[in-house]
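Late entry, written up from scratch paper. The run itself happened at the end of the previous shift, but nothing got recorded in the book at the time, so transcribing now.
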Amino acid sequence: MSNPIEEEVQREIKEHKILIYGKGTKSAPQCGFTVETMEFFNKFGHPYELINVLTNPEKREFLNQMTNWPTLPKVFINGTFYGDTDVLGPMEQKGEIEPLLKEAFKTE
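Output as recorded:
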């Protein structure tokens, strides 16, 4: 039997090149770490989606199990889970983020 939450998460990850599961929305973030992650991606100029999981504890728990990452936000780039800005910040310093985003947004 299929899991509707898993199907929903897989669809969301596939639909968005940059996907942030966080607390709140773009217009009303409810956590400093979510704001920090939004600011991180704003500087690159690529579109991203922020999905509020505060309103859906089942989805939040599924994401914790799926990623083995207990905190929010949870960032996916081009379908791959990267953690949050604790991981992305050092990647940016090493010059790894821009090529990753360039690859994600290249035209086919």
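The helical segments are 4-15, 32-42, 57-67, 85-93, 97-104.
(Scratch paper discarded after transcription.)
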